[in-house]
Design a protein that fits this description.
Layout lengths: L2 H12 L2 H14 L3 H23 L8 H9 L1 H30 L9 H20 L2 H32 L3 H4 L7 H15 L2 H4 L9 H30 L9 H46 L18 H17 L2 H29 L11 H16 L4 H27 L3
Helix pairs in contact: 1-7, 1-11, 1-12, 2-5, 2-9, 2-12, 3-9, 3-11, 3-14, 3-15, 4-5, 4-14, 5-12, 5-13, 5-14, 5-16, 6-12, 6-13, 7-11, 7-12, 9-14, 11-12, 12-13, 14-15
């Protein structure tokens, strides 16, 4: 993967289910001030992405945050990070798959029925697993195509909405009576961590990039600028066109319906399906490389590092990832998977910010991209993650605690296996 392919992969990993489903949820939290929530969340995520940029510029292997944590803190915390990151990616894929079904209902009203929904989820994730099973070039090429395809309808909606606002500002943009408290702002930013998240997944398959130490920081920073500008403008468009954005299941499609009629709504809904499919394709490319990296370091069962003799892909990891994402999509809805993914990734983000600080001491001078004022960025990133984690619900806490317990058992197994000299 070259530099611009990596940029496309990062954008594709970020722009997916969040922007198509979250504008209404963010409106419910902070009302007409929602665009400022995007800016605030973008600033916080920007601090964390800067820490990722320095950390990623030290490595050429696959693994992403798992690799950074292992190098900084050792095997135990590396395995803990690996399991939390796996939970993040699987719940994110499940959220995207659920939103795919919601937007598909614009064309097929029966898509939300249990049997139809299960069929759609099976075909959706099955096709993606098959494509990535056949090789990383197929997956990366698909990522490039879908990145362009998803930006076109979003860009057109942004342009049409801007033209609309120049002629007339809708009532929802100016007459919100909601007065959000500090807790509402924190909850809104927590939701937007999901919208801006996903970039960490693009760091996982860097072993298959041409020059990862140079290109990863570039891809992260370019993608952040694109996404903050686009997401904020689309939220403004939704608020300018819909009288009550909080009631919209498909906020971007409903905004397009106001601007361009039924044809516009269907065009955006089709764009959403393309975007979500591309987002899931990026997940299916990235996530199996995580379990492959864990197995490659003897931190996971050896079967996960199996490579297909013809396609040279981690086919077992791909199959397991697809099955688990499918099960989580069936078991939960969009919002549940969004909150779980957002909360879990905050642990990963905070750990990478801390790992960046530790690696500066353990490996001085090895970063291809030394972050100016790195210690300040690291401390701010950790603080940002901790504030948002304070909004964690009991259900999310139970799932994350359970994941960490499983990771602890995994570590005991790996340590025992190393002592007995198993290969």
């Amino acid at each position: 993967m070259g530099r611009w392919t990596l940029v496309a992969l990062v954008i594709n990993s970020i722009i997916g289910s969040g922007i198509f489903g979250l504008p209404s949820l963010v409106w419910k939290q902070v009302g007409g001030a929602a665009p400022w929530a995007y800016v605030l969340a973008g600033a916080g995520i920007g601090v964390i992405m800067a820490c990722f940029a320095e950390a990623s510029s030290r490595f050429t292997e696959a693994g992403g945050p798992y690799l950074y944590a292992r190098a900084a803190f050792g095997r135990f915390l590396g395995i803990e990070m690996g399991w939390v990151l796996w939970l993040v990616r699987l719940s994110a894929a499940a959220a995207g798959a659920n939103l795919f079904v919601i937007y598909l209902a614009e064309f097929w009203t029966g898509a939300k029925q249990p049997a139809a929904r299960a069929l759609v989820l099976t075909v959706l994730l099955g096709v993606l697993a098959t494509i990535n099973y056949r090789g990383v070039k197929s997956g990366a090429r698909m990522s490039n195509v879908f990145t362009v395809a998803k930006l076109v309808p979003l860009g057109l909606l942004a342009v049409a909405g801007t033209a609309f606002m120049l002629l007339r500002v809708g009532p929802a943009l100016t007459t919100s009576t909601l007065h959000p408290a500090a807790g509402d702002w924190i909850q809104a930013v927590l939701l937007l961590v999901f919208a801006y998240g996903g970039f960490e997944a693009a760091m996982i398959p860097l072993a298959e990039a041409e020059d990862p130490r140079r290109d990863a920081p570039f891809a992260l920073l370019v993608s952040l600028a694109v996404c903050v500008a686009l997401f904020t403008l689309l939220q403004i468009v939704v608020q300018a066109t819909l009288a009550n954005p909080g009631q919209a299941d498909r906020p971007l499609a409903d905004a397009a319906r106001q601007l361009m009629g039924t044809a516009g709504a269907r065009f955006i809904s089709l764009g959403a399906l393309v975007s979500l499919y591309g987002y899931l394709s990026a997940n299916m490319l990235n996530t199996p490389r995580l379990t492959f990296a864990l197995a490659e370091h003897d931190d996971f069962p050896p079967i996960f590092r199996a490579v297909h003799p013809r396609f040279r892909t981690p086919h077992v990891s791909i199959a397991v990832c697809a099955v688990l994402a499918w099960l989580m999509a069936l078991a939960g809805n969009f919002r549940w998977n969004v909150v779980l993914s957002a909360v879990a990734r905050l642990f990963a983000y905070g750990a990478v910010c801390l790992a960046m600080l530790v690696l500066r001491r353990k490996q001085p001078g090895e970063a291809r991209f030394p972050l100016p004022a790195g210690p300040l960025f690291g401390i701010l990133g950790i603080a940002f993650a901790l504030v948002l984690v304070s909004r964690m619900g009991r259900a999310e806490l139970a799932i994350i605690a359970g994941t960490m317990v499983i990771a602890f058992v995994n570590w005991l197994w790996a340590r025992r296996r190393k002592r007995t000299g198993a290969s």
